[in-house]
Amino acid sequence: MPEFKEMLADRVKETEEIIKRYLPEEAGFQRTIMKAMNYSMNAGGKRIRPLLMLETGRLFGFGGARKELEHFMAAIEMIHTSSLIHDDLPCMDNDEYRRGKKSTWAAFGEDMGVLAGDALIVEAFSVASDAFSGTEHPYRVGQAVRILAEKTGIYGMIGGQVVDVELTNQPVPADKLDFIYRLKTGALLEASMLIGAVLAGAEEEDCGKISRIALNVGLAFQIQDDILDVMGDPELLGKPVGSDERNAKTTFVTLKGLDEAREEVKRLSEEAISQLHSLNREDTFLEQLIRMLITREK
Amino acid sequence: MPEFKEMLADRVKETEEIIKRYLPEEAGFQRTIMKAMNYSMNAGGKRIRPLLMLETGRLFGFGGARKELEHFMAAIEMIHTSSLIHDDLPCMDNDEYRRGKKSTWAAFGEDMGVLAGDALIVEAFSVASDAFSGTEHPYRVGQAVRILAEKTGIYGMIGGQVVDVELTNQPVPADKLDFIYRLKTGALLEASMLIGAVLAGAEEEDCGKISRIALNVGLAFQIQDDILDVMGDPELLGKPVGSDERNAKTTFVTLKGLDEAREEVKRLSEEAISQLHSLNREDTFLEQLIRMLITREK
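YS: structure for the whole thing
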């Protein structure tokens, strides 16, 4: 499907350009922190979250809030990046490299690693709340800030990280694994799509559907990750496979086996696509994007 | 002035009760992080920031946004507490104790120390943006969220921390010391008073005055801290004096001497009080509160 690939390349480029506009200028006595933030934000990455936000906004025709949406696209990528920076810290996963480059703390020092993560969380809310300036939709923007905060915090991404960290090197029961997947990976994907819908003025029922679609996509995405760690091509992935088994890590695959994992990915995807179609909107690109995210081989 | 002391005790109690209402319930798989957050939020402290916010809101008669203000009182204390948690980390100041209790990372582990600080930053914006729910003043709330983010981030508190961390164990030139004082201490005090004024619907000119008052108070507060480290009574302070000299730390006193420090505190206070009076409002309690903060002996 070469047409989709070209469109995707265009949309990713559009997303990159939007994010870049909201990065801080490296100036002033505190410029080290701006450098550390920009280093991390420009370290590559698939930009899945802002892209899903953009495409969900587009699905609902943007509702006169396209500029506001762009603020939140940058904000959600900042939140995601902050979590990677802190995950890599010596007291967390102790990773010196990420995507082939030194991780933020390894490049700027551990203290700057802590502060750069903090700074990106705050900058996310700064950029998001700047969307109030001149908006005609203050309640939508307010609702979007609430979603961003709720899905990032203890009832979202950070809540999932906490349980994940506490269970390091321990077997994880199925209910807690589901909790981790829903919160650590799922919550920000849900925020991405839901903010896109809310800012565009989508109706409550449609927002509910979008939430369910996003949670399915998040779960399927994570289970596909587990499958790839067993079955993936190390060259395509750019990293060795089998790390979960070596680290005795509990995953959906170790708990339920490969066959059930594949079936679950299929079930979750079909449910997501069927919900998407039920919105009765022009969804060709978003459907293909979701299929690509879930069935990816890298 | 026994009357002020009684009023102050009442207002601090009121502030404590408001903050308590916004703390997370310790429940769910992720309850460890709620425990760590509440441990840090209940570890004592003078509640200066939410108290200044409350009293600035009162100065302008609250403007029909008293409930919204309470959200932000909890939020600003969460931001302040998050900065203490991360400051204490081994890779930052490496403090095992704070106010006679184990610091958060020492009590809950270093990984939970990082995550509890992150969680409190996000929870601050969650609690703040919940003020949108049912408000009649969405633009004021939006403006308050913007101020909170700006004064917390790289152009506020975190910007000051970065420069402070970079200059550890180095002589600090006067312009950078001023920068650190204005941002690390001053910015959150400014946010506290400014948010109080903005939520109450104060006019732009009055908001400008409030900003200048708060910055003066912040600078005077910090310089008084430096004076107390030389001249203070260790029993009243509850900690040894002379630590700045022992650590070869640059302060206003080491740069300019005690006499100039005292004169600067006096000058800043008088300017702050004169600006306060120029607002022509019932400011007796707020004036006394500011005087107490600046001329404190502990």
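YS: worth flagging: Chain B touches chain A through 57 residues (CB under 8 Å).
IM: good catch. Also Chain B has a mean pLDDT of 95.
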